[in-house]
Amino acid sequence: MTSTEELLSEPLDKVNQRILQAIDSPVDLVNSVCRHLILGGGKRIRPLLLLLAAGLIRPEAIGDENILKLAAAIEILHTATLMHDDVIDESEMRRGLKSVNSVFGNSIAVLGGDYLFTKAFDLASVTENSAIFRDFFRAVSTIASGEIEQMGNIDRPELSEQAYCHTIYAKTGVLFEIAVRIPGIFFKVSENELEGLTGYGRSLGNAFQIADDILDYTADAGELGKNIGDDLQNHKITLPLIYTLNALGDPERKQALDAMARCDLPMIMNLAAKTGAIARCYEKAESEAARARKALEVFPDSPFREQLCSLADRAVKRTR
Predict the structure, then answer these.
(1) In 3D, which of 191, 182, 178 has the Cα closest to residue 66?
(2) Which DSSP string corresponds to 94-149?
(3) Nearest to 285 by CA among 190, 215, 181
(4) In terms of Cα–Cα distance, which of 237, 244, 242, 317 is closest to 282?
(5) Do the beta carbons of residue 237 and residue 209 sit within 8 Å?
(6) What average pLDDT does range 298-316 have in this prediction?
(7) Is residue 168 pLDDT above 80, yes or no?
(8) Which residues have a Cβ under 8 Å from the Cβ of 152 and sit 6 or more positions away?
(9) Contact at 8 Å (CB) between 111 and 25?
């Protein structure tokens, strides 16, 4: 199977160049703030998805200048949301480095995120395609409402799996979704093909976020690049906790609620192991990955489809 690097090494390098060109500012502090996170690593999974989807539709499209700029725009948009996320969550680490807010302070981090939002929309406007622009607006609106929804669900142990899935689509799935939809809109694919791309992105985003929530309970902080147990510390109810609580009888459920109040990660992990909650979470993530792969069957087999399917597998099995 052709590797992602073989397919996209040069286009991804060009996307990184477009990102740095787009965020460049005459103000040194703005450059320092924005480059701190942009140059701090990251998987570049959203621009990667956009390029792979473009190649799935038209293999030669991965070098198209508009596609490169749209891939840069979606990564800048994602980075802006991370800056705001870290302020909200009071996170001190991101991608193995100190977060922007911990280095520069909350006010500058928020303004840095706002600056990146404007640059993302500026890049997205190059196509002059109103449908693509609407998808960008929809993504930002959905992400913001998802963050508010998650904050409203803090310390709510009765939260349902359905409500959780609604939140993770808003927080993660929508950006994965528009990343693969945008080339479809740009190249005017059929309704059936656009539906396949949309379904793939949504399910992949779900699988990715469920795996992320598992890692918050199980990963090594050094390998993950951020503190583990952050969700518990911030009193967020994610799928491992939902499955754990739902599987416990009254006495142990009270133990779990007390452990949540104390942010006692070892106790919660013991209960999660006892109930098989983590294994159930993996099953759910794998189910979403399978749904993502199935959605791509409207397209003929190609190296680009193989890589998109492989990404769905790796989203579940990743360790960071």
Answers:
(1) 182
(2) ETTEE-HHHHH-HHHHHHHHHHHHHHHHHHHGGG--HHHHHHHHHHHHHHHHHHHH
(3) 215
(4) 317
(5) no
(6) 96
(7) yes
(8) none
(9) no
Identify the three-state secondary structure at position 301. Answer: coil
285's tokens: 């993530």
Backbone φ, ψ for residue 5 (5° rounding): -60, -40
Instruction: Render pLDDT for 115-126 as a digit per residue (tens, 0 to 9).
Output: 999 999 999 998
Q: Which tokens go with 124?
A: 């997205």
Residue type, 163: A
- Residue 36 to residues 31, 104, 184, 272, Cα–Cα distance (Å): 8, 10, 32, 36
CB 222 within 8 A of CB 181: no
Which residue has 């690049």 as its token pair? 225
Which amino acid appears at position 67 of this protein? I
Q: What tokens appear for 193 in the block?
A: 């093909």
- 3-state SS string over 39-104? CCCCCCHHHHHHHHHHHHHCHHHHHCHHHHHHHHHHHHHHHHHHHHHHHHHCCCEECCEECHHHHH
Number of Cβ within a 10 Å radius of residue 289: 25
Q: What is the pTM of this model?
A: 0.93
Q: 97 pairs with which residues across the strands?
A: 94
| Percent share of the chain, pLDDT over 90 | 80
Mean pLDDT to the nearest integer, 48-53: 97
Structure token pair of residue 76? 């800048």
SS3 state of residue 300: coil
Query: What torsion do the CA atoms of 27, 28, 30, 36 make, to the nearest 10 degrees?
Result: 160
Q: CA of 213: how far to CAs of 126, 174, 176, 193, 200, in Å?
A: 35, 17, 17, 30, 20
- Per-residue pLDDT at 267 exceeds 80: yes
